[in-house]
Amino acid sequence: xxxxxxxxxxxxxxKQAEEIENTPELKQFIADMxxxxxxxxxxxxxxxxxxxxxxxxxVDGSELEEDYPECLGFKKTFINxxxxxxxxxxxxxxxxxLSLPGISENVIRPRTxxxxxxxxxxxxxxxxxxxxxxRIILHEYxxxxxxxxxxxxxxxxxxxxxxxxxxxxxxxxxARYKYKRQ
Length: 182
Known about the structure:
It is built from 4 helices and 9 strands; from the N terminus they run E-H-E-E-E-E-E-E-E-H-H-H-E.
């Protein structure tokens, strides 16, 4: 089932997400998140973006493999993730977000991260991710912490996009996917 994506301005996007436990409904919810992500043509989707304040996100970077070879076959579920390490080396890429349609900005993030998380079968993993994989994960991890990527840009850039952000919050936006506004 395609879920509506919550747009900038929705309170759930600013709350710190809660750890979740395995329930019978969770597998279907994860499947719905992947279906929503595919339909919206994104590479990552966090549970708060579909209205659930849960520490869960899904990624599918396989469409990006031509530009980012490390994304070949990169399709994963992250439940209750914990960021263990970040490299001192940073990199800058332009980011967008399904909750902020039509906006993209350069964001500085660590090049490499180490993460502990549970997969969809609640099996624990501890992995290191680099380059665009790390960027996708950190972007989605921010959603679990109540942040959006515009929180990481310079105050002057944020001021320049203020009217766009207000328009999104009011639902005055065009998106090619199902969304929920305030």
